[in-house]
């Protein structure tokens, strides 16, 4: 059972990185490409940028106290991605 949980956590980390990259590509193309006439991002570049931003984000002590189940991790990953995309879409409508 514990091995399955570890595999699930690794899967969620990989999925989270890919989803973050996809959301960054969409938001980049909506806002940065049209505003600054920069080239569109590809998913590998977006994953790299997202990883750098995550790496540079400060680690707080409260992060280490959070205990989450795999179900909670899945829910948070999906909810965060959907909210960022929804918020970006709404802003994109006003451009």
List key phrases describing it:
95 residues; single chain
Describe the structure.
- The termini are far apart.
- The model has no long low-confidence stretch (mean pLDDT 81).
- The chain has helices at residues 2-36, 43-56, 61-65, 70-93.
- The protein has one domain (2-55, 70-93).
- It has 4 helices and no strands.
- The protein has 95 residues and is an all-alpha fold.
- Helix 1 (2-36) packs parallel to helix 4.
The unreliable regions are none
**Cα-to-Cα separation, first versus last residue:** 50 Å
**What is the averaged pLDDT score?**
81
Describe the largest sheet.
none
Q: How large is the share of residues in beta strands? A: under 5%
The domain tally reads: 1
Order of helices and strands: HHHH
Helix count, DSSP H or I runs of 4 or more residues: 4
| Sheet/helix structural class | mainly alpha
Query: Approximately how much helix is present in the residues?
Result: over 70%
Shape: elongated
- DSSP summary, beta strand count: 0
Rg computed from alpha carbons, rounded to a whole number of angstroms: 16 Å
Brief digest:
The protein has 95 residues and is an all-alpha fold. It is built from 4 helices and no strands.
Itemize the secondary structure elements and their pairings.
Elements: H1 2-36, H2 43-56, H3 61-65, H4 70-93
